[in-house]
Task: structure prediction
Amino acid sequence: MGRRVASLLVVAAFFAAACGSSSSTASSSPSATPLSGNISVFAAASLAASFNALGTSFQRAHPGATIQFNFAGTPTLVNQIEQGAPADVFASADTANMQALGDAGFTTGSSHVFAHNKLEIVVASGNPKGITGLADLAQPGVIYITEGPTVPAGKYALQALARAGVTVTPRSLETAVTGVISKIELGEADAGIVYTTDVQAAGGKVAGVPIPDADNVIAAYPIVAVKGSTNLALANAFIAYVVSDAGQSTMATFGFQHV
Amino acid sequence: MSLEVDLRLTLGPLALQMELVIEEGEIVALLGPNGAGKTTLLRAIAGLVPIDAGHVRLDGEVLEDAATRRYVRTEDRSIGVVFQDYLLFPHLSVLDNVAFGLRSRGADGAQAWSRAMEWLERVGLGRYAKARPAQLSGGERQRVALARALAPEPRLLLLDEPLAALDVTTRAEVRRDLKNHLDSFRGLRLVVTHDPLEAVSLADRLIVMEAGRHVQSGTPAEVTERPRSRYVADLVGVNLFRGEAEHGSIRTPDGPVVAATDAISGAVFAVIHPRAVSVHRVRPEGSPRNVWSGRAGGVELLGDRARVRIEGDTPMVAEVSRAALIDLELARGGDVWLSFKATDVVVYPA
Amino acid sequence: MRRERAPLLIAVLAALGAAFFIAPLVGLIVRTPWGSAVQSLLAPDTLQALRLSLEASLSATAIALFLGVPLAWVYARIDFPGRSVLRALTTLPMVLPPVVGGIALLLAFGRRGLLGAWLDNSFGITLPFTTAGVVMAETFVAMPFLVLTVEAGLRSMDRRYEEAARALGAHRWTVFTRVTLPLVAPSLVAGSILCWARALGEFGATITFAGNFPGVTQTMPLAVYLLLETNPESSFVLSLVLLSVSLLVLIGLRDRWLGTA
Result:
C-alpha cells in the first residue's frame, strides 16, 4: 500500500513541480532558482527542539518551502520508511540504524554526521531522590526507566552502565527519549538516561545529573536524503543547511557538540 | 388454623378492597373475570405485592400489617404457591425442582431428595425424576408444580389458575386428580380461577370477585342459584335483573317493570331461567304478565334445545326447542315477542 | 420458495466491503513465514509475552466478574437517582480511546495520582510499571463489556422464577445463586468471553499506564508493536496468533452477541 501512495505522490509532485516551476520563473533571479515545495523530515526524537528551530529559520530563508517533521525513536522511523512512509530526509541518532537503512536500499547519496551528543541522567526537578551518579540508579527506592535496547539512546545507556560497572533493571523500556522524559516529568519514574540536549530542552521541568566522560558515550548523528524523495533538491538543500556553519551553531545552542 | 385477610391496595388501574376468611377443612375458590384482581390478591397474600392498608394473618401470626408496618418476607411465610405457568426451574431436574423448597429451608440433600421422591411418586411421576421440565407434558408439569408446592408442607396452599394452561381434555383428568390432592391436604387452601366449572368442581365455598371488590360468596349451589352479579348470571346462564320491589312489581333502573308474585319489597335481584322465556312472532295473549318486544339475535345449539339471545331494550336469553327454532325461523333474526310468567321469576334480597 | 438474489449494485458494494476486511487478513496469512513460525512462537520473549498476556487477561476477567456482576445486578434491578449517569460513566471506557483511558488511570493511580499518591505514601505501593498495573488497565477497558452483557441478561430473564423461588422459602442469596445466576448463565459466559478477548488485545492503556518491560508488563500486543521494528517476521507470527484467538471468539459468540439466527 505504501508503494501505491508513493507513486501517487510522485505523480502529484510532478504536476506540483511543473506548476511550481512555471510560476516561479516570473520573479526569480537568473542565477538561482528559488527552492520551493514540500518535504518530510524524519528525525530522531532527541532532535525535536533543535530541528524545529532549524526548520523555522530555513523556511524563513526560503519562503516557498515547507518542511514537515516527524519525530520518533530511530528504529520506529527506520521501520516506517521501510514500510513506505513518504520521507525525504532521515536524521538518525546513531550510525548503526543509518547503515541498516542504507543497506536496505532506502537512502540516496552519502550520509553526513552533523552533530554529537552525550548522555546525562535525568531526574525530577529538584532531584528529590538525591541521585549523584550512575551507581545511585541501582538503589532500591529508585524507579529507573530507559529506552528500549534497539533505540540508540537505550543502547548507549547500556554501554555507559557497563563502563561504570552498574547493574540495574529498568522498570520500563520506552520507545524514545521523549517517553522517558515525560514519565520523569509526571513523577511516575525517578530517573532515566537521556541525552544532555534532552535535559536542556525540557527546561525546568526536569533536572540533570552529569555522567563522567570516562563512562559516557559519544553519540554520532548522521543525516541523509531518502531514496524516492519527491523533492530531492529541497531535501539536499536542507541537509546542506544542517551541516553548514549556521546550522551547526543552532545545534550548539541546543547543547549538541560540534562534529 | 385460619387465614384472615382484610386489605386495600392499588396496583396501576386496579383498586382492590377485599375481606376474606378461610377456615381449616374448606377449599375456597376465588372466582371472577379477568382483571378482577384475583391474582393480585393471591400475590398480596403471598407477600409479593405490598398492601396499602389492612392486614394478612395466618394461623394467628401477622404476616403483614400496614398500620404497624409489619411485613414478613415471602420466603419466611409458610405458604406453597402453584403459579399459572407453573414456573418450574428449567435448569433443574424434576426431582431438584420438587426438592427445592425443602433444601431452601435447610434440609440436607439426602433427606430432601427422598421426601421429594415420595411426593413425585404420590403424583405418579416418580419415573421422571431425572427429566427436565421441558420434556414433560402440560398435565405432568402441573403435577410437578403441585408436588413442589406441597413438599415443604406449608400451612397455606395458593393456586393461581391451576388448570388454565391445559387443553380441555387434559383439564378434566387433571381436575379430578387435583381435587383428590386438595382433599387430602391438611392445610388451608385457596384456588384462584376464572373458570366456573373449575371453581364449582374443586371448591366447597366460592368467593366471587369483580373489579377488585367482593361481590358474593357461598356454596357453589347458593352462588349459582342466587347470582348477585351479571358476571355470575352469565356464567350460570340465567337472566338477572336488579331493582326495587313493591307489591309484586320490580322497577329496574333502565329496564322494564318485571311483574312477580313474591311479596318481598325493597332492593332485590330477580332471576329468570331461559327455559321460562317463550318466544313468539306475534304479540302473545294469555296469562304471562311479562311481555315485551325485541329482535332475535345469536343462536346457540345445545343438543336438542337452543339458546336464543333476544336483543332490545333489555337483552334476554331464551331457551327453545329445536322444533320451535325452525318453526319460528329464529335463525334469520327479525322482530319477536318474548314472555315469561310472573311465577317463574325468582326473587331474593339484594 | 425462491431464494432472494441481491441486486447487482448491492452485490458489488457488499463484495467491496467484504474485500476491505478480508484483504488484510489474507495478507497476514500469506506473509507469515510459516517455516520459522514455530521457532518465533517458542522464542523465550514470545512465550513470556504470551504467558503474561494470558495471566493478565484472565485476572482482569476474574476481577470484572467479581465487581461487574454485582454492578450489572444493581443496574438491572435497583432504581436510584443518577443511575443513568453512573451507568454512562462506567460504560465510557468502551468508547474512550484506550490511550486516553491510560492517561486517566495515571491521573488517578499514578504515583502523583489522586489515589496513587495515597497508596505510595501510606503503603509504598506503586501501580505503574507493574503487572498489577497491566491488569488494572485491561480491567478498565474490558469490564464494561461484561457489565452490559450481564445486565441485558438480567433484564430479559423472567423474574417470576425468582418469585417462585421465594415462595418456596429461598432467601435472597439462595435465589441469586440457585435461580438467577443459572438463568443468566449464557450472558455470563458471553460477557466473560468478550471481556477476556478485549483484555487480551488491550494496548493503548497498557503501554501508557503500565509501561513496557518483558515478563512484567510487555503483553502480546506490545510485543507485536515492538517486534515490528526489530524482527518483523516474528511480529507477523504473533499477530496471527492474536488474530486467530479473536476469530475463534467471534465464531463462538456469533449467535448470542451478533444476533444472527
Q: What stands out?
A: Residues 80 and 156 of chain C are 20 Å apart (CA to CA). The mean pLDDT of chain C is 88.
